[in-house]
Amino acid sequence: MDGRSRVGWLAWVAAIGIVAPPGPADARGVRDRGERERPAAREERRRDDGPRLERFRDCRAMEAAFRGAALREPSWRGGPGPLVLRGGPATGLAAEAAADGAGSGAARASETNVQEEGVDEPDVVENDGEILYVLSGNELVLVRAWPPERMEEVARVDLPGDPIGLYVRGDEAAVLSRVAEPPGAGARGHGGRGVEPSRQGIALDLYALRGEDEPRFQRRIAIGGDFVDSRLVGDTLVLASRWQVSPPALDPEITRDLSRLDPEIQHRFRVMMSSFVDWMPTLSLEDEGGRVEVGPAVECDAVWRDVNLPESAPAPPLTLVVAVDLGDPEAEPLVQGLWAQVDTVYASTDSLVLAGAAPLEAVPVPLARPGRRGRPDAPDLRIAPAASPATDLHAFQVADLDPELGPAYVASGRVPGRLVDSFSLGEWEGDLRVATTDLTTRGGKLTSRVTVLRPSGDRLRTLGAIQDIAPGEALYAVRFMGPRGYVVTFERVDPLFALDLSDPRDPRVGGELKVTGYSTYLHPVGDDHLLAVGMEVDPASNRTEGMQISLFDVSDIDRPELVDRTMIEAGEGMSEALYEHHAFAYWAPEGVLAVPVISHGVDGEAFNGLHVYDVDVRRGLSLAGRLDAGAVLSKRERRDRGGRSSAVDERIRRTVFIEDVLYAVAERGVVAADVEDPDEPIQTVILGKR
């Protein structure tokens, strides 16, 4: 069949309605084919506008739902291909190990600064009291850090992509990386002849540590999608990725012929003629011998969908929830899907909560479409402007894994407004507390609230709420601590609100403390004090004046007090700790706080290092010293490389404490110093020297 005949055939197919643009009723028919909604279920949906999850019964029902969504949304074009990782195990550099230091790690070492005790989070640096595990470029670098006088790089391992974070537990390391789909790796559309853009995937590489000169690659688990977040609870590592489901490209010859037809017809033809298997992500498993197994990432009956999703709402991405038992090297990953928007991941030792923006209904809007003679204008969709933003919550049981799915689904709910970050969520005695800021429709006024929810059946029911916290101000920081909560709002001053959440049915605001500026992160110091980092703001001009660190006394919930506040000099006010809590390093055994700071400094004098403070809950904050680690690293590299220097003076990202020594960690180097005299380094290591 020549090109002209193919175009004629395609036009005839479109004309008789095989791929004709469906109306709303047609789209519902495609969705319901194989899984029709009972009248009672539809009535329940009308009574409850929150999310309600059900699993697809089979692949036919799932395919009908996704094809229906694609047909309703002509903009759902292009898409990801399956992810297949090939190649042998990662390799490291053989390195000398100190026999006299092996196994003699220090007694005390800091851990990753996490939100909930007992729940680990991925970070760019880990340590075991003797070795620092640093993600540097696309490598995992091991640095013997103890004793500090003999600090040196001892091993290096190549990673498959751009590292995200790692976990170290016992004698095993788990490294998360973003990876791109290799060209031609997947079979999309007609025999893989379609041309697709590279899409991101996530690789989880597991290594055996200790007892060998370098980590030994054990296995790789790779899944398609964009990284959302990850947590480690006990032996269970949970990873969430986001996959935008969409039809793949077709055979180039057919694509060329389709280009002569109406764009909507092209889209619908691609939806109906492509293999649905090619729409979905894949999972690949690679063992230490380089053998790779590839299969579908998730079974159809392991995918949850919101049966209350409005017909006109834009189709959400597919969120994949992967659970890996690190305690069993033979265990296969458990994967389930959630056809819903997920932006935030929270975990306690019992529960996993996936939160995301609630769907906003779209309204049809007629658009002029030139060049379509004899056909009425087709409606387009836009988000309803009057819709009020809300957040959907889906709770799972991470302490009790379903042997087929992983974390067992518990319940779903909805709260008004939007979260700040994962710290907006907290669990205590089985209840979920959620802090949100809402832009109400009444005059466009901001309002904040804290809602307490409890699972009841498959619903998260509201037990109580504190509403209208600081009307007109947005939430900037949240911290839940047992029966209490603390929130910071801001407009021109920074009110710190102490919340009494001991009675979930009657939560209340205790005291309020107004100070200038605002805080973006709150850190507990025992049960009665909080450290905070943020920015100082002139209340008269609303101009930012620099970075500030505060210490609050919250022992009396009705009368929080400011113990002390210290300013970092003008021009030196930027820190990763302002938006990344892993960069905030408080070492309780020594009462020391280290905050990374980078700036061009006063009078053009650059600074890239740590400000170190002694923290005393009675006397307040005092500057112990400043470690200009960037300058130290640059000087060391010039010496090691005969006067040549590269970009080792990148920002200091993390601080690790071992005994009374602090380690300032950059991507390309580590500087060790005494916590009592941080100005003078003990030892410096440049990473990645060949």
DSSP, total strands? 44
Low-confidence stretches: 1-47, 78-104, 182-198, 367-379
Strand order of the largest sheet: 1-16-18-17-13-12-3
Amino-to-carboxy terminus distance: 59 Å
Measured by DSSP, the beta-strand proportion falls in: over 45%
Describe the main β-sheet briefly: 7 strands, mixed
The radius of gyration computed from the alpha-carbon positions, rounded to a whole number of angstroms, is 28 Å
Structural class: mainly beta
Multimeric state = single chain
The total of helices stands at: 7
Query: Average pLDDT across residues?
Result: 81
| Shape field | globular
Feature tags:
690 residues, mainly beta, seven-stranded mixed beta sheet, six-stranded antiparallel beta sheet, 7 helices, 45% strand
Task: Describe the 3D structure.
By secondary structure, the protein is mostly beta strands. Among the domains are: 1-343, no CATH class; 571-690, no CATH class. Helices cover 11% and strands 45% of the residues. It contains 7 helices and 44 strands. It has a 7-stranded mixed β-sheet, with no helix packed on it. It has a 6-stranded antiparallel β-sheet with strand order 8-9-10-11-14-15, with no helix packed on it. Strands 2-7-6-5-4 form a 5-stranded antiparallel β-sheet, with no helix packed on it. Helix 1 packs across helix 5 (252-258) and helix 2 (24-32) runs antiparallel to helix 4 (59-72). It is globular and about 70 Å long. The protein starts with a helix and ends with a strand. 47% of the residues are buried.
Topology (elements, then pairings):
Blueprint: H1 3-15, H2 24-32, H3 39-47, E1 53-55, H4 59-72, E2 92-93, E3 119-120, E4 125-127, E5 131-136, E6 139-144, E7 152-158, E8 162-169, E9 172-180, E10 200-208, E11 216-224, E12 226-233, E13 236-243, H5 252-258, H6 263-273, E14 282-287, E15 292-296, E16 303-306, E17 318-325, E18 334-339, E19 344-347, E20 351-357, E21 362-366, E22 379-383, E23 390-402, E24 406-416, E25 425-428, E26 431-439, E27 446-456, E28 459-469, E29 474-481, E30 484-490, E31 493-500, E32 508-516, E33 518-525, E34 529-538, E35 543-553, E36 561-567, E37 585-587, E38 592-599, E39 607-616, E40 620-627, H7 629-640, E41 654-658, E42 661-666, E43 669-674, E44 677-686
Parallel strand pairs: 16-18
Antiparallel strand pairs: 1-16, 2-7, 3-12, 4-5, 5-6, 6-7, 8-9, 9-10, 10-11, 11-14, 12-13, 13-17, 14-15, 17-18, 19-20, 20-23, 21-22, 23-24, 25-26, 26-27, 27-28, 29-30, 30-31, 31-32, 33-34, 34-35, 35-36, 37-38, 38-39, 39-40, 41-42, 42-43, 43-44
